[in-house]
Design a protein that fits this description.
The protein is mainly beta. Among the domains are: 125-177, no CATH class; 182-231, no CATH class; 240-307, Wheat Germ Agglutinin (Isolectin 2), domain 1. It is built from five helices and 21 strands. It has helices spanning 48-52, 118-123, 174-177, 291-295, 301-307; strands spanning 12-14, 22-24, 31-33, 36-39, 44-46, 66-67, 76-80, 104-107, 115-117, 127-130, 133-142, 161-165, 170-172, 182-184, 194-197, 220-223, 228-231, 240-241, 250-253, 279-282, 287-289. It is elongated and about 75 Å long. InterPro entries: C1-like_sf, DC1. It comes from Gossypium mustelinum. Residues 6-51, 132-177, 244-294 form the DC1 domain. Keywords: Repeat.
């Protein structure tokens, strides 16, 4: 039993919790795992460090933020995910974006399996219109079980939060359902179109390139039906092209930041583009285009030669 100056009741040390049981410390507001000091009268918890700290200047939070969100059947608590990131076995990901947890998050301390970045929680809709399933919208189906059906896009099991078309029996991750993809046709996989995907599509997983055998950690092209993956570098795309709608040659490049508003557009089809995707780019005009928009209207190679600046004899 422990008495602290900042809480009116004695605290009892609990060592009988499982190692994977999580809780939120009411002093440092960190998400913690394992043993704690608890007040059963107030549902007040402290981790071992905060309970035994002699620092009287550290304040105890007066208000604990607990919300009832449509994405999960249990209450979720706002907390920080700082110290757990230093743990070697720490491998928790956000149920929405499927990226490693960081910063401010919301956690379910009841089932210990549901986590959301605060940013993701604020932007999750109750229904998604997905390019992978344009026939019907996909409403959210929260469920507390550890694993659900495989996602129709990435074929990995959906955990914690499911977007699902009941009429078509079509389950998807949120990150897959909202993903912006483009298609190209290439002779390296002639049976189906290849989707242009970025690293955000696969979360922390990195599929293996079928051409070189190395992990595809950045942008790639994929046939999800055949589980075929290939690096952009392994896909023979022209590094410079001449497009019918633009005066100068376009160069195949990676990220280009257009403005401070986090909005990215293709200047050829005038629709939004995914900032993870490589593009064809004219630096002189700041002209940006989807790869598939360019390849569908490429002029003959001699048109590129006409636009290139010849090297001087002195070089």
């Amino acid at each position: 039993i422990l008495s602290v100056s900042f809480h009116p009741h004695p605290l009892i040390r609990n060592d009988d919790y499982e190692e994977e049981t999580i809780f939120v410390c009411d002093r440092c507001e960190e998400l913690c795992i394992g043993s704690r000091y608890s007040c059963k009268l107030c549902f007040f918890d402290l981790d071992n460090k905060c309970a035994t700290s002699k620092d009287e200047t550290q304040k105890v939070r007066e208000v604990k933020t607990i919300v009832n969100h449509f994405s999960h059947p249990h209450l979720i608590t706002r907390c920080k995910i700082g110290i757990l990131q230093t743990e070697p076995d720490f491998d928790l990901t956000c149920m929405a974006c499927r990226q490693r947890l960081c910063g401010i998050i919301y956690a379910c301390t009841y089932c210990s399996r549901f986590f959301l970045h605060e940013f993701c929680l604020k932007h999750i809709p109750e229904e998604v219109q997905s390019s992978f399933h344009p026939q019907h919208p996909l409403p959210i189906f929260p469920f507390p079980s550890e694993s659900g059906p495989p996602c129709k896009a990435c074929n990995e099991d959906v955990e914690g939060m499911l977007f699902f078309c009941v009429a078509c029996n079509f389950p998807m991750h949120y990150s897959c359902a909202k993903y912006q993809f483009r298609e190209i046709k290439h002779n390296c996989h002639a049976d189906h179109h290849l989707l242009h995907l970025g690293k955000g599509f696969f979360g922390d997983e990195s599929p293996q390139c079928d051409a070189c055998g190395e992990a595809c950690k950045d942008t790639l092209f994929s046939c999800l039906k055949c589980l075929f993956y290939i690096h952009l570098e392994c896909l023979s795309l022209p590094s410079v092209v001449k497009h019918k709608r633009h005066l100068h040659p376009l160069v195949l490049t990676t990220l280009v930041f257009e403005n401070d508003y986090e909005e990215y557009y293709c200047d050829t089809c005038e629709t939004q583009r995914n900032p993870e995707h490589d593009i064809y780019y004219c630096k002189e005009c700041n002209y940006i285009s989807h790869i598939d928009c360019v390849l569908s209207e490429v002029e003959p190679p001699e048109k590129i030669i006409q636009c290139l600046i010849p090297r001087s004899k002195g070089n």
